[in-house]
Request: fold
Amino acid sequence: MTERLILVVEDEAVMRRVLTLMLHGRGYLVAQAETGQQALDRLRAGRPDAMIVDLGLPDMDGIDIVTAAHRDHRVPIIVLSARAEEQQQIRALDAGADDYVTKPFREGELMARLRARLRRAPQAARDELRVGDLELDVYARAVTCADQSVSLTPLEFKLLQVLAEARGRVVTRERLLSTVWGPERVNEVQYLRVYMKQLRRKIEDEPAQPKRLLTVPGVGYRLVPADQRRE
Ligand code: CA
Reply:
């Protein structure tokens, strides 16, 4: 079975370390975020299997992270917070958290709740994606094109991943923008033009005449196997 990736969002270094060691000890992979912004960036780079989120973050309210993670990524979320008031718990659960554990917490209880969430959640799609001779290893964030390794920025990778997951279907500009840059950027179509151009330079033999990454005028883009060019 593929190892599960847990995103820990916690600004206190000691607590982050405790959680990381705890999770590693149980065979999970761990990604860490110290701030809300780091958490959002990490989510856009690829969906973890679950998140453990502290509500008191330096740059934003953890509730906003819960809202975004639930709405945009459907990640199972356990809130871990020193805020024990019922009102806070209700807010977190309303925002999309699946469970709420107050600090100080017992390791056994937190891990049992995490296991329960993971059992209910489908495994994040993050292994290999293949579109013709283009291969994405979503977990390692590695791409090869015709057996040549391709170096992509995190944003370029995420774009390519969303397109690859559509398995040849067109992905609208709005969906690409909101998934990769966030819902607040849904109208910034010029981002797409710039990034698609960069991507084509890296994965097309002739970027001006793309045969993998196709534009669907006025709608969006699709990623197809190179040999389907003249379908
Ligand atoms: Ca905190």
